[in-house]
Amino acid sequence: MRQELHGMPDRPSAAARVFVILMFAAFVAPFVPLVVASFSFRWHWPDLLPTRWLWNVRDETPFPVGWDYLLSPVSRLGSAFANTVAIGLVVAALALMTGVPAAYVLARYDFRAKGVAEFFLLLPIIVPQVSIGIGMLLLFMRVGLFRTYPGIVLAHLVPALPYAIRILTAMFQNLDPGYEEVARTLGADRLARLRHVTLPLIAAGLATAGLFAFLISTNIFLLTFLISGGRIATLPTMLFSHIGSGGPLDATTAGLVLIVSVPGLLFLFIADRITGSGLSLATAPAGSRAKEDR
Amino acid sequence: MTGRARRRIAILAGLAPAAVVLLALFVGPLVVALAHSLGHAPIYRVTEFPTLRYYAAILASSRFRVSLAYTFYYAIVPTLLSTIVGTLLALAMRRPVRGSRLLVFFFRLPVVVPYLVGAGMVVALFANGGLLARALFALDLIESTGDFPRILFSSGGWGIMLAYLFKQIPFTFVIVSSALAAEDVELEQVARTLGASPLRALWHVIVPRTIPAIISASLLVFAFNFQTYEIPYLLGATFPNTVPVEALRVFNLIDVRRRPEAMAYLIVITLFSGVVMFLYLRAYRKWERSKGRV
């Protein structure tokens, strides 16, 4: 008690520590068997560890297995990875291009239909994606977007754009118009103000919104599955077919699960760089809304 | 041009690109689904518009009612569990200690990977030939894979729900943590210094701060669980399974004239999840008002 009166912060209780450690184990430990499985060649029931490993059989098998298979052109992992990243980048660019003006208006203007506009922007997040996806499939068949890259990109925009707009709106709300005002009174023209004042101030917000759109796109399964008609593979659709067909500790599926986690890992590293905080996902929509509610 | 007219044009021009994208890609597909479900699907020679025949048919079928019940069950249980556990985790980690940053990094990882990653882990750990079954065998607790309880591919749905929890406990943790600012934890400390017991300080200072975040996190989790396809498809039973799985099964039948039925499935779950969320938010508002917060 005395320590606290001197302003020493409470330390987490023993129960809290044990709980956190258990949770950490629960969320990190499942990656371990996948790493082991990805290097296994033979891991039959009821062995707790593989009896043969990838490096034991390299010279014996006529076909590449495990990682060798995944990294060979036969698996088409490379094209699925490239598709995922390319589609994600285009989705991010389009979400920014259409999202920035909308977010600017939502942050800077008050108008009668604003509540309606904000509600409308929430809908694509809560309306079942499968409902949108099947209707979209039928529409896209008619206009020639079915089984095309532009079709997949447009499909991904539906969940990505509302999230991007929410992040961008919060960014514009935090941007003090006073800076631009000062630049104008100092004689800066529109272009100079944009280049030297506004852009540097919003760069981090733009990057965060773009990253989110990219992340959402790389994680989408169902819309890609429906619109690609099985012709264009991304990482999630490839993983889907492997989980559906592989056994419980299949080396290829295990390796693929790890590969599919890579865009997310990159996201975390880059997002931390941009915001410099340990909780960069704090810019997630629900979080930012929670703050406004205070 | 008057200032008012210019302002109006600025608002419209800003919102137009995003509005066009979402009208074409979100509202358009929903209208197609709705029209089909009401009997307007000339491509399948279904021209009975308007008819409620398809709705009547699915609402009368026990197959649909069972699917809807399971969809709700698979959605609500993980929502409750992830809300409780994720919030406790956020509370347990509200004070940064040594190693927090690393812990937070790993807790965020499941949030940023596709749901299919969780599905891959659940299969590796909980399949009948998976690691947990092997551990039980090694401990002489079971004799064959058949003795292991069917966690996957059964309508009990524990595999589905575990895959959801892998992502949603960390998701709730991130959203609730981001609602807790450093000032709140300091304020809690002030309450402690002034003589409040640890639980009292937590309850009166910290918990009220987290409530809006808990509400939005649980809403997003429920909305997601209610509509997802790939997890119940891969980890659930052939039947009964969720409405989205059932809808896509009907949609992919050879008899395309049954497709309006699939659309009716989709419209019904869209409305159902909308009503559930609306009631939830209304109850929350009412409770806030009773506390005099709004």
Name a few traits of the molecule.
heterodimer, A: 294 residues, mainly alpha, MetI-like fold, 2 domains, two-stranded antiparallel ribbon, 16 helices, 2 strands, globular, disordered N terminus, disordered C terminus, B: 294 residues, two-stranded antiparallel sheet, 74% helix, flat
Biggest β-sheet description of chain B: 2 strands, antiparallel
The CATH topology of the largest domain in chain B: MetI-like fold
Please identify the structural class of chain A as seen in this structure: mainly alpha
The termini of chain A sit apart by 32 Å
The N- and C-terminal alpha carbons of chain B lie at a distance of 41 Å
Output the CATH class name of the largest domain in chain A.
Answer: Mainly Alpha
In helices, the fraction of residues of chain B equals over 70%
Structure description:
The complex is a heterodimer of chains A (294) and B (294). Chain A is 72% helix and 2% strand. Chain A has two domains: 2-68, no CATH class; 76-292, Orthogonal Bundle (MetI-like fold). In chain A, helix 6 packs across helix 11 (190-219), helix 7 (114-126) crosses helix 9 (149-174) and helix 9 packs across helix 11. Chain A contains 16 helices and two strands. With 294 residues, chain B is mainly α. Chain B has twelve helices and two strands; from the N terminus they run αββααααααααααα. Chain B has helices at residues 3-37, 53-60, 62-92, 100-112, 115-126, 131-138, 158-179, 182-193, 198-227, 230-235, 243-251, 259-290; strands at residues 40-41, 46-47. Chain B has a two-stranded antiparallel ribbon. In chain B, strand 1 and strand 2 form a beta hairpin. Chain B is flat and about 75 Å long. The interface between A and B is large, with 102 and 105 residues.
